[in-house]
Amino acid sequence: MPRPKKQLKRAAARDTQDPGQARRPGRRRAQRQQTNNNEQDVQAQLAPPQPQAVQLPQAAPQHQAALLQQAAPPQQAQDQAVGSLSSSSTLCRPSSAGHSSPIPDITLTSHIQSLFNASVAVNTRQTHTAGINSFETFRRSHNLPSLWPPLDTHITRFIAYLSLSGYKYSTAQSYIAAISFYSRAIYNVDPTNHFIIRKLLQGMQRTTLHKDTRLPITLQLLNKIIPTLQTVCNTIYETKLFTAAFTLAFHALLRIGEFTVSKGNTPATIIQFHDITMQQTNIQLTICHSKTDQLGVGANLQIPASNGVACPFAAMHAYLHMRTSQTGPLFIHFEGQPLTRYQFITILKRCLNAIGVDSSNYNSHSFRIGAATTLAIQGVHSDVIQESGRWLSNAFRTYIR
Question: Which residues pair with 284 in a beta bridge?
Fold first, then answer.
């Protein structure tokens, strides 16, 4: 059947067209291609660096070394999905007339890294690092290829391995969350969002129930601990320091990371000297950062004076009388170093052993558990207990013994 005249004319025009004047792609196609290039550039910046604890197949690119400072999937898998930032990236397009001058690409790239890094808490990054290290160690020991994103069969076997090795459900859950985090950040996929994986975690939660063996430091026990500090501590200043720290931890239901330095925080994020105000009969305390307040909204507490040797007001007044006006953390040693989590727990256990109490099931959280238990025994309403301890859920009920 002969073709219409219009089609013949179009074919003749294509045959006589100069190759140098070939039809260019449409504007919409070019815009979509440019958008895809931008997305690839941003994903390339989110690739975390090589972990120190585990030697993965190849070293991470140098441009990624400063990002997140935590474990990353093998470099071989990264090369298949992401590349380095392009010098011609359109993240910084020339500004139109009347706007500010363009920001250099290197500045934008650095700020992207900073924002992404700031979105994850320090403790979370450490947990992610441990999870990725454990996952890669498991795959090497079981001769499984280090593919990223990982296969669902690798993840299910990893969960079974954690369960058989005696890991807690919470640990397994956090390790799987680490795999999910890196897969979404680098590849924009979540291999852990699988029915079988969710059911395996649920099964592990039901079959590996661990009873909380931590014992509470009740007010009665605290009244026995405080006098013992005179014999446990080496100086009068240290005695005042730990008396104030113990009584405030109990009466304010503090988390250990809120007033001592540990690996998960810094001296600048714990309770500071200027965060406390001594009023006539109570202590006004401001907690600027906590586990449930990552954005630093802050919480204001009123801690009243009480009778007995465990009075927080009297203990704090005596400590501040000897403490210098040095700025920084509230609880500091005589030389100015901040109180650490290890020191707090060590002195606590020495006091317990001195009064004939087995200290094996007591730790820093025992103050918080004991305070919640004491309030419940006194008949305080559960809503008040939850608000006093700044719990965001009903988890406080597990603290009441």
Answer: 277, 302
pTM: 0.61
Report pLDDT digits (tens) over 32-62.
555 455 444 434 444 444 444 333 333 333 3
Look up the CATH architecture of domain 219-399. Orthogonal Bundle (1.10)
Would you call the peptide bond into 149 cis, given omega within 30 degrees of 0 as the criterion? yes
**In which band, very low, low, confident or very high, does the pLDDT at 114 lie, cut at 50, 70 and 90?**
confident
Q: Are 51 and 71 in contact (CB under 8 A)?
A: yes
Rounded-to-integer distance, Cα 150 and Cα 183, Å = 8
Domain residue extents for the chain? 36-85+104-210, 219-399
**Domain 36-85+104-210 matches domain 219-399 at the CATH topology level:** no
Mean pLDDT score, 140-154: 95
> What's residue 120's pLDDT?
82
**Using CA atoms, how far apart are residues 372 and 384, in angstroms rounded to an integer?**
10
Helical segments of 142-188, H only:
152-164, 169-187
Whole-number Å distance between alpha carbons of 334 and 260:
15
How far is residue 215 from each of residues 10, 341, 357, measured CA to CA in Å?
A: 87, 18, 11
Tell me, what amino acid is at 27?
R
Q: For residue 80, what pLDDT is reported?
A: 40
Task: Say which residues have a Cβ less than 8 Å from residue 281's Cβ, sequence separation at least 6.
Answer: 304, 305, 313
Q: How many other CB atoms are found less than 10 A from the CB of residue 10?
A: 12
> 36-85+104-210, what's its fold?
DNA polymerase; domain 1 (1.10.150)
Q: What is the mean pLDDT of residues 329-347?
A: 96
Using DSSP's 3-state secondary structure scheme, residue 261 falls into strand
Look at residues 216, 168, 193 and name the one whose alpha carbon lies nearest to residue 372.
216
Cβ within 8 Å of residue 395, ≥6 positions away: none
